[in-house]
Amino acid sequence: MSAAIITADHVSKWYGQVIGLNDVSVTIPAGITGLLGPNGAGKSTFMKLITGQLKPSKGAMTVLGGSIWNNPAAYTRIGFCPEQDAFYERMTGLEWVSALVRLNGYSSTEARHAALGALEAVDLVPAADKKIGAYSKGMRQRVKLAQALVHDPDLLILDEPLTGMDPLMRRRTIRIIREWARDGRSVLVSSHILHEVEAMTSNVLLINNGRILAEGDVHDIRGLIDHHPHTVHIRAERPRELARECLSYAYVRSLRFEGDALVVETDAPDTFYTQVTNLAAAETFGRIEEVTSPDDNLAAVFGYLVK
Ligand SMILES: Nc1ncnc2c1ncn2[C@@H]1O[C@H](COP(=O)(O)OP(=O)(O)OP(=O)(O)O)[C@@H](O)[C@H]1O
């Protein structure tokens, strides 16, 4: 077992009367760890406590060997990709990433150099001089990722980084994150989609209602999750043809349209996601613009796990 990167010791966080995190004690090892939980589970709260943006109401949080609250020296060793967008829309991607890394004490030449390197790491060099206001959702996610890794931190905290990306960009971003962690660096990445987390790591924490329900190898919980039917929303250029194709798969239980989105219920989410990504790559039914998994999938599984 490698050394702990993050340790929470009886950490709780209240927002007034609302509990965000409830008496959490957990040790996170080096490498990639997935934080899996439905909406409102406490993922963002946990991440803000780890990055020193929030102070625990109770308990202690240790990150990279020291206390994180009020410890600016530690902040430079951490990169954070928040769930929300907070951009200066009129800045270009390059200007924005350069400006933020200058806050770490980089000169303007160093900042530009580092920013270009980070934009390259996330495949965004062609859009480096475009205004962020004109970026797609997926590009915004990637420029946030560039901002998180531009100062070469030891630990990356990524809050739902794949949201809004099309299937091919998701696959590429998963690869970027895995490669980044290969040199002994650590990542904590949140998601409400098991399939996505599993593509990055087998080490997961399950979080629900502000508590860590389970930690460890994803394969141990996968059986439980797989037994629940899974709903997937797809927006594609040629949805009717895609629907006809999906109906030929034995693992597709039902299919309907909601507005222009195709809604598929499947017994084999993994096989289905892989198949949809392959169809997207081959453009068999035109562009597949978006594949989303509503998180009631996970909420249903968690309801079942805690019973
Ligand atoms: N600033 C806040 N003020 C009041 N309540 C909050 C605040 N931030 C979070 N909460 C509450 O704390 C709980 C945990 O929220 P948190 O945002 O950490 O969950 P999450 O797993 O990240 O979900 P999501 O993916 O929806 O952000 C929720 O009940 C939420 O309503």
TrEMBL record:
Instruction: Cite the EC number.
Output: 3.6.3.-
The UniProt keywords, alphabetically, are: ATP-binding, Hydrolase, Nucleotide-binding, Transport
The record's listing under Pfam families reads: ABC_tran
MF terms from GO for this chain are:
ATP binding; ATP hydrolysis activity
Indicate whether Transmembrane appears among the record's keywords. Answer: no
Q: Residue ranges of the ABC transporter domain?
A: 6-234
Q: Which residues form the signal peptide?
A: none
Q: Does the keyword Transferase apply?
A: no
InterPro entries registered for this protein in UniProt: AAA+_ATPase, ABC_transporter-like_ATP-bd, ABC_transporter-like_CS, P-loop_NTPase
Q: Which Gene3D superfamilies does the protein's record reference? A: P-loop containing nucleotide triphosphate hydrolases (3.40.50.300)
User: What family is this protein classified in?
Assistant: Belongs to the ABC transporter superfamily.
Descriptive protein name: Putative ABC transporter ATP-binding protein YxlF
Which species expresses this protein natively? Luteitalea pratensis
The record's gene field reads: yxlF_4
